[in-house]
Amino acid sequence: LVLILDFGSQYTHLITRRIRSLSIFSLCISGTSPLSSITSLNPKVVILSGGPHSVHSADSPSFADGFVEWAQSNGVFVLGICYGLQLIVQRLGGEVKVGEKQEYGRMEIEVEKSCGIYGGKKVGDRQVVWMSHGDEAARLPNGFEVVARSQQGAVAAVEDNERRFYGLQYHPEVTHSPEGMETLRYFLFDVCGVNAGWKMEDVMEEEIKVINKTVAPDDHVICALSGGVDSTVAATLVHKAIGDRLHCCFVDNGLLRYKERERVMETFERDLHLPVTCVDATDQFLSKLKGVVDPEMKRKIIGKEFISIFDAFAQELEHKIGKKPAFLVQGTLYPDVIESCPPPGTGRTHSHTIKSHHNVGGLPKDMKLKLIEPLKLLFKDEVRQLGRILRVPEPFLKRHPFPGPGLAVRVLGDVTEGNALDILRQVDEIFIQSIKDAGIYDSIWQAFAVFLPVKSVGVQGDQRTHSHVVALRAVTSQDGMTADWYYFEHKFLDDVARKICNSVRGVNRVVQDITSKPPSTIEWE
Ligand code: XMP
Fold this sequence. Notes:
By secondary structure, the protein is an alpha/beta fold. The chain contains 15 helices and 18 strands. Helices cover about 35% and strands about 25% of the residues. The strands form three sheets. It has a nine-stranded mixed β-sheet with strand order 2-1-3-4-9-8-7-5-6, with helices on both faces. Helix 8 links the parallel strand 11 and strand 12. Xanthosine-5'-monophosphate binds next to loops.
């Protein structure tokens, strides 16, 4: 195991992912975790991440007392990156100062000593790296040597081979450091002697074993399928482990996209052979949403209805199988459970990062179900990888995210008014199909149409019209937390707008949303 101690760098998760891409299992925990949390994981290598802090500020995070001694006496290799290097220097008796020149961005460094972390490189070799620091190592602790310097003369890499402590002032994990991956690979395999053996197939087998150990042979498990990648992969995995003692429920709340229910159910049944009950609750949802225009109110109502349907599903199941289901499957991912060191000034504490959106809008309190979260150590792209092994069809794995409240947050105002939902479905389908036809679906994080509660004047076939306006939104993003609007070619937009106005009755104007997040959000409500 390679353990990453997170000190708040925006790249920390990237380090974890890069190392996993070398088929090495790596985990990330808070940099201030108690020593027992570190030792209980028994890592062979510990990487101290970068972070926005200065080691001089009073509240700068640091590793637990006793860490250095534990690492030394257990033959553990320690690599500090950026702030991590400065922590090592400071805690082992060296000195860190505010640099004379701060170094941000691309920078050239030169190897001064050919050994340890740069075993393959010769003295004088140069490479371009990505720097991002204000402080620098001014005096190294006893036993440490400078291995590379930046073109401005700042320390870029250090090591104490005997004690197995290493440090890089730059970020090898980002693509702007073109040789960074090679350095990490060399360090982990050749210096630390780590074995590559972490494969998604093994992860799957291991998870299946865990599920079978957790769920007794006569226990039953339920799962709410949203049609999204995470819950589908989680359910497919659990189904592989326990077969038809898994019972899934898919709710058609009347707020789904064009033919979504049919398309999703077909994949569940035909491709994945999942035991799924489809509950048609269109009337139940829409009657509760009638006249509601407040976005938060819509979300609350939808969340509550989901709970009551899910509750009824569990009770019905109990009657059918004569036993209460004992477990609930959730598609929680690793980024949701990582406890990280928040950057200063964000007001966040060292608490779990909890997703603010829940697909099923919360769970009934009295269900007393124990959770099975088979994806909780995986990142999104790894879930897709696992999905491929489980034979979840590729187009399904690549679907754009879709919010739990569905089209309710894309029809602004009262969703039951006129034929807003129907119009939106048609417009959305044309937009998405055009995106797919143009071969750009996979370059976009999320694309969708929004129904606006306004009408505008137009002219169609010599007739003056007073019809609806729809907006098109497409964004690129890494995780949905921030987003940029997607640049379509003009010809593409022109074709889509024409197609929409020509084939969707009731629409005479198409506009495009060109705001990033922030200041907007991805959804309009
Ligand atoms: P926003 O609009 O907050 O969206 O920028 C960020 C991401 O979250 C999705 N989203 C939701 N997902 N329930 C969900 O399951 C919700 O209530 C919800 N609201 C937004 C949104 O589609 C985007 O991917």
